[in-house]
């Protein structure tokens, strides 16, 4: 009986993943990611919704893409911290899309649960939608828009062809095979722990300096390696210092 229940669950889970991608990409569903985004604004203590963007502001903007577990303590801490640096931080909510399923298991630290589910395609479309929404804001200086992503979001910001960002930060994502940064001459920062349990079993990621080795091929790209073991980066003072230096330097270039 247990075998049948388990088999039924696998079949249902696989079918949901296989059928849902095209449905999730429908504009009427995809728009929820932006509509339910959390916004951190320097002039406000509490997070807001994207409605606040209808009001002109003097601040630069940073789009933040969360990891496979969704908006959590790590994303909130980064939102608050970068807000404190004088940025409007916009965090689209991928799981606000009706029918969106997580493609990872935080308990076992496994990714790509549904092998036939193209997570990158979904997250890339979310990013494209967010960038297009910002292009509608007449008050925004489009030359002062930054991008950051963590883990699954870090994969997206590294591999995406959506460009026109002043600077890009990837947290908790390791390079592999080739450097997939497509952002022209925009400066790029990788934040990684020397030991990351999410990548511990993958031979490709066992060299903690691989991002820097590949980044050497691209001017303006660097990697900050955090001593110790971890995945989320917002609790690291070194990571925060690196982000602050990176953003301030990119603004003055």
Report on the structure:
- The structure is a single chain.
- With 253 residues, this protein is of the alpha/beta class.
- The chain has a 7-stranded mixed sheet, with helices on both faces. Strands 4-5 form a two-stranded antiparallel sheet.
- The chain is 36% helix and 17% strand.
- Helix 3 links the parallel strand 2 and strand 3.
- Residues 1-19 have low confidence and may be disordered.
- The protein has one domain (2-252): Rossmann fold (3-Layer(aba) Sandwich).
- It starts with a helix and ends with a helix.
- It contains 7 helices and 9 strands.
- The radius of gyration is 18 Å and the shape is globular.
- Helix 2 packs across helix 4 (119-135).
The biggest beta sheet is recorded as: 7 strands, mixed
The total of beta strands comes to: 9
What's the domain count?
1
Give the termini distance in whole angstroms.
64 Å
Strand-residue proportion: 15-25%
Number of helices: 7
Strand order of the largest sheet: 1-3-2-6-7-8-9
Order of helices and strands: HHEEHEEEHEHEEHEH
Mean pLDDT across the residues is 82
Q: Specify the CATH class.
A: Alpha Beta
Q: Tell me, briefly, the overall form.
A: globular
